[in-house]
Amino acid sequence: xxxxxxxxxxxxxxxPAAATAVGVGLPAASDEKPRIRLVFTHIxxxxxxxxxxxxxxxxxxxxxxxxxxxxxxxxxxxxxxxxSAEEARKLLASDGPMDGYLVYLVGIWSGAAExxxxxxxxxxxxxxxxxGTGEFLIQYAAARxxxxxxxxxxxxxxxxxxxxxxxxxxLKKMRASVILDVIEGSPDEHARAIEQAFGTKVRKTSAExxxxxxxxxxxxxxxxxxxxxxxxAREVVEPTREEVEKSALIYVGMSDLMKQHRAQAITVDCLxxxxxxxLPAYPCLGFFQLNNDGLVGACEADLESxxxxxxxxxxxxxxxYISDPVIDTSLxxxxxxxxxxxxxxxxxxxxxxxxxxxxxSEDRKGAAIRSLMPLGEIVTTLKFNxxxxxxxxxxxxxxxNIDEDKACRTKLAARVRDVDKLLGEWDRWGWHRVTFYGxxxxxxxxxxxxxxFKVTWES
Length: 459
Hints:
Helix content is about 35%, strand content about 25%. By secondary structure, it is α/β, with parallel strands linked by helices. About 50% of the residues are buried.
């Protein structure tokens, strides 16, 4: 297979524009709003305390309720006020099913925050600055030490509260989502752990089913995607047009399977199946398209990374990039390497970066992606482990798209704070990590706390 100019391979015909999940007709997770009990806690305004005696609690509660409704239109808030621990216990006992509790401390020493924190329900404690501070600090610290499903916001910036509330939305969508797992063999304990931790269904399918979908795929639609990928690529190096068209057919087949199973994510045991002659093409370009469009296409039947991509997509609206990282201590760098990556790292509506179409690196066959991703950006890299209810995380700043023939095609280098510390967690977490553009530290910590996951910082 010789080098080819994408402009000579692609016709001038119309190809599909950058799509959203809705635009390609794939199922979105349920749009049912999470039901959140919005609890304001304080004592009588007649008593001397913070914020001050005679404070207008009612006015402040009305103001905050309006702002929450405006900032979080996809959440159903059910407001209530409690002025004591006893009132908090009565409210919990009388409540129907809730997706979580948002406890706004607009005053101190009611004793209610401790009751909600220890209730077992996902609870977000919020300090209304200079009003609920003392009680917030004590109860939030105690909840963290106990490993309770409690997150906290202590900020004068209201937008930080609204951002934290998005974790409830993401977890609600996870409970309505389906991951399609294309693998030979029976579902394993990882699939069961994902459903137990997040409520997400993992549905196993086979190489036989994906091959049937490949054979039945709409040829005209596949050709449109092949034309699009070829036309928009900076360079096409090894693959022929036929190889790219086969990749487009398997993409359309995967899309059809996702529709059939009402799935928002798909992961394929691609290396095992392709090496074994059980796949007609690599799914790399299909994963590239799915991730650009706001869905999830994940490599190697890695359910933990797939779950991470799905949850973070709901939480921050950006695709994840699975990689096999390389550590370079001489430059204080980690290099995220894989043969597929999105080129809309800021989300489906974000700007695109250049990419090349290459062969898959290990066997020099098929079609894969080298994405030249933006530099000078903070990235957050993590992986959720539903088995142990933990998440590992580090952050770095992107510095180079490395051009090296060895190993996977995309190689994004990033500078970390402590490269030696970064060497310490690979035996417990495996090789893969998932990278997201942006500083998502607080979002990850919030959703992890509400889901009952321990956070381990590896750098």
